Amino acid sequence: MLLVVTILPVTVESTFMPPSNCSIRNHFQFTLMIVLAIVFLTTLSNPTTAIAKPLKVFVLAGQSNMDGQADIRTIDFLGEDSDPDRAALLKTFKPDGRKLVTRDDVWVANAGVYDKLQPGFGGRRNYDQVGNKIGPEYAFGYYIGEAFNEQVLLIKYAPGGKSLHVDFRPPSAGKTGDGKIDSKKLSQEAADKWNNGKQEPIVGLEYRKLVRYVDATLADLKTHFPDYNEAEGYEIAGLVWFQGFNDMFNVEGRQQYGQNLVHLIHDLRSDFNAPRMQVIVGVMGVNGPHNEENPKQRDVRNGQRFINGVPDLKGNARAIETAGFCHPDIVAIKTAGWLNKIRDLKTNPITNDEKSMLARATSNQGYHYYGEGRFFILTGKAFAEAMLDLLASGKAPGPQ
User: Fold this and answer.
1) The whole model's pTM is what?
2) What are the φ/ψ torsions at residue 142 (nearest 5 degrees)?
3) Which of 118, 130, 123, 124 is closest to 93 using CA atoms?
4) Is the domain covering 54-328+369-393 a CATH 3.30.420.10 domain?
5) Tens digits of per-residue pLDDT, 53-111?
6) Where are the domains of the chain?
């Protein structure tokens, strides 16, 4: 509602006392004018009282690399980057040189934890508490929080070892075509352990669980986050998808990845009742740009890039590259003798300096980007920048 108030010039005395000779009607009009003026001025000084600012919700989904497998100690390696702009980012996340930043204006829902943004929402043994690893959510949340005045919520759902072809298969993609897989259901034992006792088909199970987790979180926001303003509500502003490794090992999964991803975007917009939800897809970048020599990884990467050529996704969904965020020196050492054919570790073994660098920079296996905190900071930042660019464009899904 737009309120327009015209304030006539009055003297200081008349501001608080109407002229003695005014009529009762004029007195009432005068008093009303003063009340409306006070409301107007109060609104100017407190814009949030006039404009509702719903909670900005971003869904982060995928498999183990969205979960995040980088020990927080490896974030310090970012400060050694040869690119001074990247090296300077360490001070952003560790301004005093000791403690990693947290943000009260960004909340995170992940498995059984509902808390403010902080390091530790990556992979962990006990998902009912934060641990000592990060994924892309840490830097993504930081930069999204910087961009918005309103409160932000990240809802992260990222079970490890799951494919788009089977586990996250969206409803509109139909069956896989493999009768054995299409007919398979959870055993009662697996259902009791992982699915609240519910036996249901394997195909699309993680898709359904993602939707249920998001719905359950949003339905109980006041319990999980007591400061949530129910009067202002929420809006699901964006989805970040970072996945792909398990689809490499199925021919149909690789070949159909692009179409399945389009189905995923459309179906989640429908099931989240968020038709304007912007989407960022992280193109799998395991072992850097040159690993597209591997045709399996190339197929999945191209499937993820496929969305950039879909007309009705133009301007509201975008796949961005992550391979360039892998540290080239680490990849060169770790892939020596196969991807990096220039170096033979038998004749040119790893030096003590290289061993020291790997100890500082890595904490996991190659398919987890070697658990490199630097990678996940740069990737999360890139996801946030791409998301903010789409949100700024304001383009709704559909033909442009």
Assistant:
1) 0.87
2) -60, -50
3) 118
4) no
5) 999 999 999 999 999 999 999 999 999 999 999 999 999 999 999 999 999 999 999 99
6) 12-47, 54-328+369-393
